[in-house]
Design a protein that fits this description.
The chain contains 27 helices and 32 strands. By secondary structure, the chain is of the alpha+beta class. Helix 14 crosses helix 16 and helix 18 packs parallel to helix 20. The structure holds zinc ion.
Length: about 900
């Protein structure tokens, strides 16, 4: 089947559905290659749809239609029109009617992993965004809300566990035990993208949760047999998330059961289907031996994220897919707040800002830039982006910053109150905050509509005689595709002024006003803020807590930056000062290397870093973040044009080595002091100690001396947990040689039987900056443990190479680009969604120096010319190549 030519969808074309489906009864007979789906729909014309009655057009793809009945009367072919993507009934009754449709689908053949498919002999579904149409004909749009009753029938030997959304109504056996069935009912109306079904031989770990009103909810996490113990952390995270949402947002869980299923092949991280979350098993399974602290943290945050969707996404859903940020940005904000409360708020903020800058700022600066709420798309799967998620979360955070926590909570309460059970829009969301606070947010709404990262160009003047400090702020809004000119935005700028002693000077504006929480509202293109009673020339600490997703430029001397690094009362900004000091040192080194000069810079930065890290009163996790240099991708983004990734790599290596040598003794002390002999605990404090120890190890290793390498090998072989072992594995693989090969061989032997853990072995090799890496990665695509049909394997090997190995992906001969282009084309035939993701690695190609830019263009043009591209890949590649 060939899909119709994809056409762009526009926000301005939104119309309510012509029909409503109030009730869905599904009867699914599971079979590996021929699953029968009988659907009974209670349909009525939508009284809110304007104009004369329309034809009833249902979406459907890759379906075999067997039978269709209207009010029990079979329809013949002349009564409907069937295409590859739809089923249309021209004539329907004016009164409510029942439509019965029987279709067959082939789960085994479904490698796109949308709709109903099989992974490791488990039947599972993924319907967001438009997968339900691959299960049955339906109004596959988020504003079509219905209640579902689902009967699942299967062979009990193949699928002893049968799950769907909602509460279990009944179960039983048939045909003398050769078949069995379960009936699930979800009383909450939902769009079909939240439908889920699972059938398989899985093993649950169970627990209960008592909600704030005293109801008991049965919790279960289903995993492969033998892996039950590895789900304990996910269960613990779930219960903490449920409690947190009650305390922080007053949200209680609403069904009698909450189930999570972990599957091996999954396009996304996890999916928030009502009462039945389906997870990529990488984000459920964890034990000290198998998972790094980063994975433990990710599990905690993703389990919480999907749970929080129960209110922000499920109870209140999106009117259309343009409103995706309404559920995603908001829910990411909620999970970030949860992680900040469970761990360290400052460290969490640093991690979130790092992620935002690396992924979202890079997206904003390239051909794929789009607003938080896009206005047009061809393939909605391409809009599950850092902009919608991470920047979307920042927009919600800014609302909280501008209104204060209390009024923000009132706005959220009003939103839950007013829109429960509805499919809402961004306008309706923002209006709740206006109504709850009496604040006009008209200008603020531009955050949803204007793409690109605003830049705040700042300058501070000080008048000693008048004891006045004046801060000039200019908003520069860079052009992005389709948006050449932009209106000034409403930007919360949180700041402090540090006196010569490093303490905060109290902030008083010349109007007499004291900015609440030190936050100024920047609303004009150019603005000056005058502070009075400033006793001496202050050092500005701008964008505290990263109060807006913007770039700030201000001319600060090394001494100013050192003062901030040592004293800023805002710990986030102390880190930000260190990070920008590192960045400007790195950019300087790159410039010198480009001119062929020796680049012995960075001594001053290293010294300031040593002083900052020394402080024992700072928690280890925070000190670990101080010790991490900006990534090579971040340096490339800051340089912005004529980027030479090889020079950046060299600069990064040099500065790491210099820090390792300058702070050697201190780092060695930290390495020793942070060692722990006791039993492993995944809590934030213990993880912080491991992070600091591993950050010290990384910088010590950068000296590349014999003893350093010996320490590293020992760190690998003596590791008692995966955090230490994986860190050493990646460093050793980057080093290569005998030590690298030994560690890789050992890791392979230990974990070849575990499809989750072995991914680190693929990734460590793909990330190695050594010259032979591409050849090695190519060979690994033929490794028996690798499969192009398994998204986790593709991400670990091909994705890591493309997105996390700047120096080898950007080889000057273009072989890295060609390799990715080949695999994008191959993947596109199996799983377009994953193929389009891989292609995203080219998002910054226009910023490269001429030679590489030419090679990248060649690779992209080759993809664009290929026949039968999916709409997913087609949309991304054409945007990449648009002038
Ligand atoms: Zn989500």
């Amino acid at each position: 089947m060939k899909p119709e030519t994809p056409r762009p969808v526009h926000l301005k074309d939104y119309r309510p559905p012509g029909y409503l489906i109030d009730k869905v009864d599904l009867d699914v007979c599971l079979d590996a290659t021929r699953t029968r789906v009988r659907s009974r729909l209670a349909v009525r014309p939508n009284p809110d749809a304007s104009g004369r009655r329309q034809a009833l057009r249902l979406d459907g793809e890759h379906l075999e239609l067997d039978e269709i009945k209207l009010d029990r009367k079979p329809l013949s072919k002349k009564d409907y029109n069937l295409t590859d993507t739809s089923l249309t009934l021209a004539k329907t009754p004016a009164a409510p009617f029942t439509l019965e449709i029987v279709t067959f689908v082939n789960p085994e053949a479904n490698k796109a992993l949308q709709g109903l498919y099989r992974t490791n002999d488990v039947y599972c579904t993924q319907c967001e965004a438009e997968g339900f149409r691959r299960i049955t004909y339906f109004l596959d749009r988020p504003d079509a809300l219905a209640t579902y009753t689902v009967r699942i029938e299967a062979d009990p030997r193949e699928a002893p566990v049968l799950l769907s959304n909602g509460n279990l109504l009944e179960r039983g056996t048939l045909a003398g035990g050769k078949r069995h069935y379960a009936v699930w009912r979800d009383p909450f109306p939902k769009p079909c993208y939240l439908f889920a079904l699972v059938g398989g031989d899985l093993s649950p770990i169970a627990s209960t949760f008592r909600t704030m009103s005293g109801r008991t909810v049965d919790l279960a996490i289903y995993v492969e047999h033998g892996k039950e113990e590895r789900a304990a952390w996910a269960m613990d995270s779930l219960k903490r998330a449920m409690r947190w949402d009650e305390v922080r947002f007053g949200r209680e869980y609403d069904l009698d059961v909450f189930n999570i299923v972990a599957v091996s092949d999954f396009n996304m991280g996890a999916m928030e289907n009502k009462g039945l979350n389906v997870f990529n098993d990488r984000l459920i399974l964890a034990s000290p031996e198998t998972a790094t602290d980063t994975i433990f943290e990710a599990i905690e945050s993703v389990v919480a994220h999907e749970y929080f969707h129960n209110w922000t996404g499920n109870r209140i859903t999106c009117r259309d897919w343009f409103q995706l940020c309404l559920k995603e940005g908001l829910t990411v904000f909620r999970d970030q707040e949860f992680s900040g409360d469970e761990r360290s708020a400052t460290v969490q903020r640093i991690l979130d800002v790092r992620r935002l800058k690396t992924h979202q700022f890079a997206e904003d600066a390239g051909p794929l830039a789009h607003p938080v709420r896009p206005e047009t798309y061809i393939e909605i799967n391409n809009f599950y982006t850092p902009t919608v998620y991470e920047k979307g979360a920042e927009v919600v955070r800014m609302l909280q910053t501008l209104l204060g926590r209390e009024l923000f909570r009132s706005g959220m309460d009003l939103y839950f109150d007013r829109h429960d059970g509805e499919a809402a829009t961004v306008e309706e969301f923002v209006r709740c905050f206006e109504d709850a606070s009496g604040t006009d947010l008209t200008q603020f709404r531009l955050w949803y509509a204007q793409a690109g990262t605003p830049e705040l160009v700042c300058a501070l003047r000080y008048d000693k005689a008048k004891k006045r400090a004046e801060l000039d702020v200019e908003q520069v809004l860079p052009a992005t595709p389709g948006q050449a000119h932009k209106k000034p935005m409403h930007i919360p700028l949180k700041l402090g002024l540090l006196g010569a002693n490093g303490h905060d000077v109290s902030l008083k504006l010349d109007s007499g006003e004291e900015p609440a929480d030190g936050t100024l509202s920047v609303t004009k293109r150019k603005q000056t803020f005058r502070f009075v009673d400033v006793p001496s020339r202050p050092v500005p600490s701008l964008l505290r807590d990263f109060s807006a997703p913007v770039n700030v430029t201000i001319d600060l001397s090394d001494r100013d930056v050192e003062l901030l690094m040592a004293n800023d009362s805002d710990l986030f900004n102390r880190w930000q000062a260190a990070n920008s000091f590192a960045m400007r040192t790195l950019v300087e080194i790159v410039g010198l290397l480009a001119k062929g000069k020796s680049a012995s810079r960075g001594a001053r930065y290293a010294k300031a870093l040593g002083a900052a890290v020394l402080s024992d009163e700072l928690e280890p996790a925070y000190r670990a973040e101080l010790l991490k240099l900006p990534t090579q991708a971040d340096i490339a983004r800051v340089i912005g044009k004529n980027v030479d990734p090889a020079l950046i790599h060299r600069a990064h290596k040099r500065l790491s080595g210099l820090i390792g040598r300058t702070l050697g003794a201190q780092l060695a002390d930290l390495y020793a002091a942070m060692a722990e002999d006791g039993p492993f605990s995944p809590d934030a404090t213990s993880a912080g100690r491991r992070a600091l120890r591993n950050a010290a190890l990384t910088l010590l290793t950068a000296r590349a001396s014999g003893p350093d390498l010996a320490r590293l090998s020992k760190h690998y072989f003596k590791a008692s947990n995966m955090t230490d072992r994986a860190q050493a594995l990646f460093l050793l693989a980057a080093h290569g040689g005998k030590a690298g090969e030994q560690a890789l061989a050992d890791f392979h032997d230990r974990w070849k039987g575990d499809h989750v853990v072995i991914d680190a072995w693929f990734a460590a090799q793909a990330q190695s900056p050594l010259a032979g890496t591409l050849k090695r990665v190519e060979a690994l695509t033929h490794h028996p443990l690798f499969a192009l049909t398994a998204p986790n394997k593709v991400r670990a090997l091909i994705g890591t190479f493309a997105a996390a190995n700047p120096v080898q992906f950007n080889r000057p001969d273009g072989a890295g680009y060609a390799f990715i282009a080949n695999h994008v084309l191959e993947l596109d035939r199996l799983n377009p969604q994953i193929a389009a993701r891989m292609l995203g690695a080219f998002r910054s190609w226009r910023a490269l120096e001429t030679g590489r830019r030419g090679q990248a263009r060649k690779a992209l043009q080759r993809v664009a010319r290929a026949k039968n591209l999916s709409s997913d890949v087609q949309e991304i590649v054409s945007k990449m190549l648009e002038a």
